[in-house]
Amino acid sequence: MKSLRDDFGNLEKDVSALMIFSLFLITLFYIYAIYYLWNRNLREVLAIVMPFGALISAVLVAKVASRLLTHNKITRAEDDHKDIVRITHHLIAIVSDLRNRVGFTVSSFRDGGRPLVVLIENAVAIEKRYEVLLDREAYRFLSGESVELIGRMSGSVFGLTVLTKALAEIFRDKVNAIIPTSEDPTREKMIESLESLLKDLDLFEDQIRQLRGTVE
Question: What pTM does this model have?
């Protein structure tokens, strides 16, 4: 953005300098024109009018076009910066909510003592929050590494969704049952998967904040 503004400022100076130079040439042209007209030499006047007018027009058009092009680039860059701020703020809020919900799920599996229905509803909310990360608008600005992180998270989210759906089916008539404390291998694997998801969320947030830092 700074380089674009510098280019725009330089073009402003060039246009101003060109206008001064054009005024000088116009003044010079009038002097010659008056001289030739005074001597009734219309042919000489016409001989300098055509090339002089074409030269001035060409230079002015080129400079004005360059100025407009740079101005359009600045406008697009400013729009992109606004979009980055808006999208990163939204993503940070989503990641924060996901982190809290995933942390709650980990403690529920590890310590027990919470109703199964709460775990199921929380898993559904995690899945919906994760789907927000798949919004294509954000992909305009995310790095390849960030996109890979989003894809890697899907495994943990999908695993949690499948597990909670299975538990809901098994305990269909006992959704208010309290989750017991257990060292079941399946539960331990899910805890490991969710803890890995928490690390990915932390890394993803760091990358989002780095992206936002490029426009602040």
Answer: 0.67
Query: Is residue 6 located within the same domain as residue 110?
Result: no
Q: Are 212 and 146 in contact (CB under 8 A)?
A: no
Do 92 and 199 fall within a single domain? yes
Phi and psi at residue 171, to the nearest 5° = -105, 45
| Domain coverage including residue 147 | 80-213
Amino acid at residue number 163: L
Please write the tens of the pLDDT for every residue from 38-87: 655 556 555 656 666 666 666 666 667 666 766 677 677 787 788 888 89
Report the domain count for the chain. 2
Same domain, 198 and 97: yes
Amino acid at 70: T
Pinpoint the alpha helices (H) of the chain: 2-38, 42-111, 116-132, 144-170, 185-213
106 and 50, same structural domain?
no
Q: What count of other Cβ atoms lies within 10 Å of the Cβ of residue 124?
A: 14
